[in-house]
């Protein structure tokens, strides 16, 4: 069965960096789009960044220039390098599996999440 296991969250001061990681199993990782969602208290879950099977990337406006999504298909691993963190980035971050090779096909499975807290 599909498993997505996130790690690498934590507590950091504003301006700092974190690099959440997601290790995937039970799927053909290299052929699928993958993404990172986040959910802050009282807010809906939102797609933060995604990467297609061919390497094309997408970011929401609020993280452009600060976050970088990447993947290592040999290790079935997805990364999110987060720099210049802001308190408003505080949320639980979830790894997500795409339904196909491109972001527009949507996502259909999420991991358990990793907490990211940014203090001011």
Walk me through this protein's architecture:
The chain is built from no helices and 11 strands. The model has no long low-confidence stretch (mean pLDDT 97). The protein is mainly β and 120 residues long. A hairpin with a 4-residue loop joins strand 7 and strand 8. Strands 2, 4, 5, 6, 9, 10 and 11 form a 7-stranded mixed beta sheet that branches. Strands 1-3-8-7 form a 4-stranded antiparallel beta sheet, with no helix packed on it.
Tags for this entry?
120 residues; mainly beta; seven-stranded mixed beta sheet; 0% helix; globular
Topology:
Blueprint (H helix, E strand, L loop, with lengths): L2 E5 L2 E4 L7 E5 L8 E6 L6 E6 L5 E3 L7 E6 L4 E6 L8 E8 L8 E4 L3 E6 L1
Parallel strand pairs: 2-11
Antiparallel strand pairs: 1-3, 3-8, 4-5, 4-9, 5-6, 7-8, 9-10, 9-11
Largest sheet: 7 strands, mixed
Give the integer mean of the pLDDT values. 97
Oligomer: single chain
Q: How many extended strands?
A: 11
What's the tally of helices?
0
Describe the global form.
globular
Could you write a compact summary of the structure shown?
The chain is mainly beta. Helices cover 0% and strands 49% of the residues.
